[in-house]
Write a structure and sequence with these properties.
Layout: H1 4-26, E1 37-52, E2 78-91, E3 97-99, E4 109-121, E5 130-135, H2 143-155, H3 157-163, E6 170-176, H4 188-200, E7 203-209, E8 221-226, H5 231-235, E9 242-254, E10 262-263, E11 266-267, E12 275-276, E13 278-285, E14 296-306, H6 312-334
Antiparallel strand pairs: 1-2, 1-14, 2-3, 2-4, 4-5, 4-6, 5-8, 6-7, 7-9, 8-9, 9-13, 10-14, 11-12, 13-14
Helix pairs in contact: 1-6, 2-3, 3-4
Amino acid sequence: MFSRARILCALAATALVFAATQRASATIDVIDAFSAGLNQLQDTSADTIVGGTGYNNSAGTGAMGSIASGYTYIGSGTILVTAFALNTIQQGTSGPIQDIGTGSSYNQLTGLAVIQCLSLAIPGSSSSSYIANFGAVSLSGSTDGILNQTLIGATSTATSAAMASWGANTLVGLYDGSPTPFSRTGSGSSALNADIASATGGAAFLDLGFAGSGSAASGTGWQSQTSLNNLGLIGNIPAPGNGGTVNYALVQTATTGYSSDFSQAVPSTFNPLANVLLNGSSNLLGTGGAQTPFYAFDNADIVLDYTPVPEPASICVWLGAALIGGYSIRRRFRAGRP
């Protein structure tokens, strides 16, 4: 018969070995690069236009077209698609910066944003910029929804596949560990689809969007201010020119892989009295002459609040330590030692 002491030691050893194994395998998991509290992430992004009810495309399809043909104008109903990879994580705004993804020891953290222009204000006496407000894309329940499905599917099956698993009011999906390095290069529709697939090939990390339809009260929103309302012409702006800025504030819209590890504690750009899960801003940039199927590039700074939930590996470490500690104390008492 095994003594209780031996059983306790065996359980403790098993727990610690399991913990060590889990830790070793988790070193490549991107969640391990986050620090408790606010984390600022920076990305590399690329933008294209799919279509929509306001899309300037007389053919009525999602086929790519030239800037001159008017395929790249932004108007009410236009759908924009952004594929991106987050490259660095910084604790707070002044902490150490950790590289993630390609060239680092961590998985890629990539994503896809699909948004639809709800309104566009042209430059006037109150503003010298085009101001556009965006929301989630309608895919059902109306003629426009059916058209949107057709346009998105015709342009990129990878976009359609990703959106099929999104929750309601989702604008952004984040993905952990895509097996293909993120790319925004190539030419033509096949390259566009492959690049978007490289951004959506990982496991679901977070689904983000609006609280309902988005409102100042909830703090959620997505707004751009640009010098032009033609994405293709913005993409032609020589470096280091800036074609405009985009601001967005989002909450969680579905339960995904790391939903419980992030809290809604980030001050919203749209309402200082409201907190959101993610706050971000981007600069729209030219492509720098790169061969790309996208019309423009951009870079973004986003902020997430990380509240780590103990992993099974951590629980096993604590369990093993407690078992060994308890057995040690028991032996001391039995031996008459303090």
